Structure prediction request, 381 residues.
Amino acid sequence: MAVQIMGFLNFSIQILCSMNKIKIFFFLILLIPTISYSSYISGIYINKYMASSDKFYALVDKAIEHNMNAIVIDIKYDRGETAVKVDNIYSGIGAYSPIFELEKKLAYLKEHNIKAIARIVCFKDNYLGKFNNYKYAMRYPDNDVFRDLSYSIWVSPYSSFVRNYLINIAVKTAEIGFDEIQFDYIRFPSDFPDSSKPKWVNCPEYDGTSKFLIIESFLKQAYQKLKPLGVKISADVFGYTVWLDSIGIIGQNIEPMAQYTDIIYPMVYPSHFGKIFLNNSTKESRTYDIIYGSGINGKMKLSNLNTDIILFLQDFDWRASTMGNDYINNQIQAANDSHVKGYILWNPLSQYNYFDLDEKVMGNKDDSIIYPDKFYPTVRQ
Prediction:
């Protein structure tokens, strides 16, 4: 049975075209909970290639120099390579691609009191997608293998083999000393580049369960396996998830996902929001408002759960002209002001402009109670 998924571009157009019909609900936050600096996270992402090189240490030292206390490292990469060995039942997938001296690098992080976060890309995976004659790959109705804009294959969240494989990687990662397992691409695909094909795919082992519930059930399964190992569990989500009730095309709703995670990471890169989204002021104000509003909305959504919000912020130049001057510091200030639990700077090449700025905003050291001077909307369809 087919799982209907609209493309990301269609989704973006729908948001832009329906703004006049969106209802805005305003919430007044009367009290922001106190956040101590010791619990506030600030850090960077280090990709697989940088992590495998001696440049890793230079990046970590830069982070330490700027009072950062967390590093996200690729353990299962976007194409499916894994930096840890898996159980023999999965060895035929052939995805093992170790990070040079990973244990030594983990020890270096621990020596400097840096939180080691393992990024595990879930359902986008060329290696697993090709395994066993594409048995677990999503396919178009004509049986052609689906590939996204990056020509990547996606695998079925409904498959027990796929789920168990991902959890096996996460367990092996926790066992070598990572502090947190961060699931990325924990969703269905959002873009359909082949205009000659339908905007939906078939998922192997689909059983009628909704996309939201299958994502939630995967996290529950992972939680049950990983929590006894003493690690934190987190999930990366689309930035729009804190502004909408949910995003059906990708199967993400942060409230049920948060039941089985310690941290939710909305990826709130200003360049990824539609051009007219909150576009009623200067570029600088809009950038600030997107980050601040995302933090406030995320906290509101999870206010009844013991799950933190940490924001992924943009430190790459794509559409930088739309974000105004000093857009990196502006985002960090907005994250600090929203009093979420912290932020991670994202640059896919791990080449950070932030470190080269003459003046820098750093992590939130203010543990006082804050009364916001603004109302912030949660956008609902």
Summary: Confidence is low (pLDDT under 50) at residues 1-38, 367-376. The radius of gyration is 20 Å. DSSP finds ten helices and 13 strands in the chain. The CA atoms of residues 102 and 298 lie 33 Å apart.
